[in-house]
Every structure is written in C-alpha cells, then in structure tokens.
Specification:
- The complex is a heterodimer of chains A (178) and B (285).
- With 178 residues, chain A is mostly helical.
- Chain A has one domain.
- Helices cover 72% and strands 0% of the residues of chain A.
- The longest helix of chain A has 30 residues.
- Among the domains of chain B are: 96 residues, Beta Barrel (Thrombin, subunit H), CATH 2.40.10.340; 79 residues, Thrombin, subunit H (Beta Barrel), CATH 2.40.10.
- Chain B has five helices and twelve strands.
- In chain B, a hairpin with a 4-residue loop joins β10 and β11.
- In chain B, α2 packs across α3.
- The radius of gyration of chain B is 23 Å and the shape is globular.
- Classes of the chains: A mainly alpha (178), B alpha+beta (285).
- At the A-B interface, α1, α2, α3 and α4 of A face α1 and α2 of B.
Chain lengths: 178, 285
Amino acid sequence: MLIFRFIKALFVITLVLILQLELFSSIRFFGVMPELMLGLAVASGWHGGPSNGALTGFVCGFSVDLYLATPLGLSALSYALIAYLIGIVAEIVAEDVERIVRLIISIASVALGLVLFVLFGELIAEPNLYNKNFGKILVVGALYTGLFVPLLHYMMSWVFHEGSHAGNQRPINRSQLT
Amino acid sequence: MALPRRNSGSRFTLAILLLSSITLISLDARGYEPLTNLRKAATAVVQPFRNLASTIFDPIGDAWESLSKGDNLEKENALLRAQLGDLLEYRTTTEGAVEELAALRTQLGLENLGGQETVVAEVTAQSVSNFDPYILEIGKGTQNGIREGMAVISVGGLIGRIEDPGLRSARVRLITDPNVSIGVLVVGTNQVGILTGNGIGQPLRVPDGIPVSADVETGSILVTSGSERSPYPGGFAVGTILEVLVDEINLEKELVVAPTGQFENLEFVTVVLYEPLNTQNGLGN
C-alpha cells in the first residue's frame, strides 16, 4: 500500500509542478501566479495528517526549490512546517467540516506559508523576497491559489484515502450477520 | 472539544525535516558542489516533460497575455514610437561623435558584437516565482559554451547575465534587479558610474559617482565600461539618460536611465561568450 501511495504522490507532485512552471507562471492576475505547490502541501497536511503531510510538504517545497533562485531547502522548510500545522488543525476540527470552512482554512494557510517563506528568507538575508509588492502577492496569491484548492484537496484525498477503505474491508460469512 | 493526542512520531518527523531543510540551506549557501549538481541533474530529468508541457500550454499562456496586456501593448507601442522619434532626432542633431555612432551601431546590429562569439538562445520561461521577477530561463546551457556571469543581450542592448547554467538550460538575472550593479561609461565622456536596477518597468539609476561638474546630458548613451573587474565586455549599450538630478550636498549627479534592451515579449536572446580575465584565471566570480 505504501508503495502505491508513494507513486500516486509522486505523480501528483510532478503534475502540479509542471502545471505551475509551464502554465500558471504565464497566467498571472495582477502579475501574481498561484502557489499551487504550497496549496498541495496544505492539502497533503489536511488529508495525510501532521507526519505524512510534513513529509509530502517537504517534497513539494524541495521540488519547487530546484527551479528557484532562492537557496535549496527554503521552500521545503516553509512547506513542511505549514503542512504539519494544517495537519494538526485538521485533527482538531471535525472531519466532516463544511467545505467552505476547509477552503477558508486552506487559503489562510497558503497566506501563512508565504509569510513563513519570506520570513525565513529574510532571516538568511535572501534578497528580493520582502518588497513593496509583498502585500499584493500575499492577497492575490492566496486567493488565486484558493481557486484550485478544491482540486488540490481532491488529488491529495486520492493519494491518502482512496484504497485504504478497500484495504479495511474484510470478507465475512453469512453466519456472522445473524 | 477534546484535542487529539499527537504521538511523538510526528514531532520527530517534523524535527528531522526541519533539520534537513536547514542543512540544505546552509550547504547551498556555501555553494556545496554535489548539491549544485543534484539541482542540475534533477532539472535535466524533468526538462523533457517541461518541454512537452510547454508545447501544449504556450498557446494558452500567449492567449492570456494578449487578453490581459492588450492595452499595455498599445501604450508600449506608442511609447516606443515616441522614443524612436526622439532617438532619431537626437542622432541627427548631435552627429559627429564617433563613439556615439559606434554605440548606436551596437544597438542596431547584434551580429557585430566586438568580435565576441555569441550564442542565440530561446527564452523558455519567465520567472517561476512571485517574489523574484527578475529571472528568465533560456534553453541553452554549458553544453553550448554558456558559463556563469556571461552577458545576455536582446535587441537594443544588455539585459542581464547568466546565473546557474545547467547542461541544457540557464537562468538570466535581469539588470532591472535592484541587487544588480553594472559599471557603465557615458558615451562621449570619460565618466564612469555604477548602474543599478530599480524594479520591473522602472528606469535604471546611476545613484552616485558622477561629479556635478561632469558634462553629462539627457539623451546620452550609457555603455558597459569593460573595466578589468567588470564581468561584462565593454561597449554594450545599456541605456539612455532620461533625467539628470543634481545632488548639491554631495556635489554629484544622479542619472535616471531608460534601458535600451527589450525586456518584454522576449522570444530569443543572445549570450556573449565572454569570460573576463579574472574569471579565466580563477581569481573572480
């Protein structure tokens, strides 16, 4: 089961990464692109829990880091942390929480992830992160990512949940029903 | 509401991941070679998928760009026509200076680049980050002789320098980045200053280094100084002076400069295969 989950996660991460790099880097609102990989890390924290979420978030961040001019590990650090935190939040709130609440929590988490990324970047004196456009990037980036959050949740639900239900089913004989 | 108890396993996982991230950051900041190679290898592995995706998604991106930037393109076109008219008028009224003509020739003819070898590369992607828009990706790398720090030009002049070249791709750091500095010479004078970026769509600036007595006028052309420590070869057009501000306290002139290079809608750029002497000797960056 673990290997299937790993393959599914790898597939989803690669797909979303390529979409972010090749499609959404040119489809910008007010010059801002969606942070799909951060959204994926948030969704992985929600569906995978703190531990699996942090691990998947780390891989998401590391994948993005390969293509950024910022130091390798900066996105991985922020994404792992935010996925862990959202994993804790998901454990606290009821599983069958309204989707609108889940959406709002996810958008807020994306915004918090961006803040963490810039904060950690500033701590290591990385240039160009905190600039006059930060507020715009934070608001537009989080809302724009929010458009794709339901889809990202669906993908991560497929990675972490589907299959586990089938695995939990045990055959019973007719006498056990009576 | 009762809070669920978290086992120490998840905290341990988080601690390991955070430590790994911090280790990666510190190693990468020190330029740890295996990590750089890992980054290059990983990007090379994904590159074929990116190329395929680019073929599929580029028309969508272009359509979006034409929809969202239609008005901007019209304004830009009008602005460029006005600038062209100003430049032509300037050229006819101030003809005579051999250096100025040479600089204009540099602007107009990219084939003749002072005898330097060049490589034309396709722009494969714009910046993929919200926070660092001063990046382009090109589809050629070390396999084609491209090295760290080489100058990149487009129609009109210098636009940036190579950063982190991979085997078949490289990043271009644009000169509009506020953290980029270039030694420039004002054509027709001996005045040398340091030009810095000022953000996307903003004019460049030479904040200091030009004495107030210097004969520097609006419309003059700035070219790369080509000094010994400069990573750029000399004589490449960088910008034209839009405004000269006088700082009477420090007795210096601050120059506001319009870049001559084209930054918008780039499809191809030219990389000058020039390595400064100090880099060749392993003394510089």
